[in-house]
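# step 3/5: fold
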Amino acid sequence: MSGNTQENTISQWIAEQRDQRTLQDWIIDVGPFAMLMILGVVFSLQSENFLTYGNLVTNVAKNSAFLLLVALAGTFPILQQSIDLSVAQLVTLTGVVAAVLVGDYGVFALVIAVFVGMLAGAINGLVFTKLKVPSFLVTLGTLSIMGGLALIVTDGSSITFRNDTVRNIATGEWIPGVPNLVMWGLLFYGFTVFLAWRTKFGRYCYALGENERVVELAGAKVDRYKIYPFILSGLLCGVAGALLAARISSGSAQMGEGFLLPSIAAIVMGGTALTGGVGGPHRTLLGVLVIAVLQNGMNLTAVDPFIQEIVLGVVVVAAVALSIDRRKIDVVK
């Protein structure tokens, strides 16, 4: 089967699946918008600082740029019905690599860190596809491996550096009034949306999540398209790690902590189901905004940090329960 015929077959099949929309699909589409509006109203009434420019741009938009990058990284594996649990440690490892190399390589150290992330992602994908190990177990294992490597490199302490050019990449404002971190987040958001909507890779991710057998029958190289999302995940986590190291001018074995659960929450809250085939990076941005506004609002209203963890856990469970496609699951275990 020719390449064009493969793409037409996959595209036609995806379109047919999307035409069969249910009430649950509409709820998932509208839910994040409604939640964002409700949170905005509630927190603006609770705190006069919530709707200020400084809070929304500096605290919400700027601080959520890292969460956006990590959530975008995790979106494509989930979209194809896999999962990458190593995203937080990928951020840690690449951030440590950047911090270690900045002294010798300057800005180029950030590029090397991104390539390290892609390499780690490729390893995840290869073990997943070639050794037929579930992605959950593969990335759970590499999560520990990468954390261990970061500890070895740092010897359990922080590695600091001083380089104003590198720091400015993350903390400066190339466009007055718009933090560079926001620009980086939006740049890679646009990049991933383009990949999802306008490329063969994106169409195959959706198709793999809906029904892998259809992709096989179309004659596509399934393993190749199952590896690519993990490489992309490594790339985006590498960018997040490099920018985080640049922002704080240091690297440590704890710098990526706290990204895994919020990123999964953002992905699912945005409307990308863990059962795959539904949602995408364009929806992930909504989920990130919901999580960022929720966390910011709870901080402004002085909610106990331990209570915040409970709230975030409830949000994850509720979002999964709402978004999961039970038609793809014969038995829930």
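# step 4/5: annotate
Residues 3-13+22-326 form a domain with the ABC transporter involved in vitamin B12 uptake, BtuC fold (CATH 1.10.3470).
# step 5/5: archive (pending)
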